[in-house]
Amino acid sequence: MFFTFGTPLKLTDLGLTCPDIRELKQKTQIAVIDDKAFLRASSLRSHGFNIVELGGEISSVDQVMAFPIVVCDIKDVGKAFGSSFEGAHVLAEIRKAFPDKYLISYSGSEYDVSYNDNLSKADKSATKDAQTEYWVALLEAGLKAVGDPKERWIRFRKILLEKGIDLYEIFKLEQAFVKSLVKKDQSIMAKAVVPDEVKDVVKAFASVALVQIIEMIGK
């Protein structure tokens, strides 16, 4: 049991709603990591998605820091990481650094079951020859997941819980998150005192995800 002074702030009290899908498409960049041209890039751009192809030579997860959604091929990417699991390992590393991102794995061939642990870090998966309609539905679901302030916080909070962070610490951090939204000032959450084991991911969330959320709701 823990006690607080004053009335705790709740996300539901802010009356925030997810922007419409057209606005989300315009304002949200989607990164694609692939050593070859992304097969559906042109058609998805025609549907309004903001697709940014990064190639396959990613050498640091910081290269996708600004992208709320990341699509990553499984084969022949991320060789700089030195893992036999290639793109699956890249996805797992992105998840560790930026837990709130929406991650999509895809491949043109079957992969060994040994990849499964790394691939479990992705939100969804697709095949390279998946129809455009499938990709549209997949990416729209991703946009709603990262574009809704409440949903994005819940995604992040889930990771904190999985890391075993005390509920009171999470409660305090959620209060800082809500205050940041009210004041439209990400520094409130960035300055919050948090356990050492999550300092880096909280800092990344405050400096990237929270800034994106504030920009989205600040119109």
Question: What report would you give on this structure?
Answer:
This protein has two domains: 127 residues, Response regulator (Rossmann fold, 3-Layer(aba) Sandwich); 70 residues, no CATH class. The protein contains nine helices and five strands. Helix 5 packs across helix 6 and helix 6 packs antiparallel against helix 7.
Q: What order do the helices and strands come in, and which of them pair?
A:
Blueprint: H1 21-27, E1 29-33, H2 41-46, E2 50-55, E3 69-73, H3 86-97, E4 102-107, H4 116-119, E5 124-127, H5 132-147, H6 149-162, H7 167-183, H8 187-190, H9 199-217
Parallel strand pairs: 1-2, 1-3, 3-4, 4-5
Q: What's the CATH class of the largest domain, please?
A: Alpha Beta
Whole-number mean pLDDT: 88
Please state how the strands of the largest beta sheet are arranged side by side: 2-1-3-4-5
Proper CATH architecture of the largest domain: 3-Layer(aba) Sandwich
Helix fraction by DSSP (H/I, runs of at least 4): 40-55%
Structural class: alpha/beta
Order of helices and strands: HEHEEHEHEHHHHH
Main sheet summary: 5 strands, parallel
Number of domains: 2
The gross shape turns out to be globular
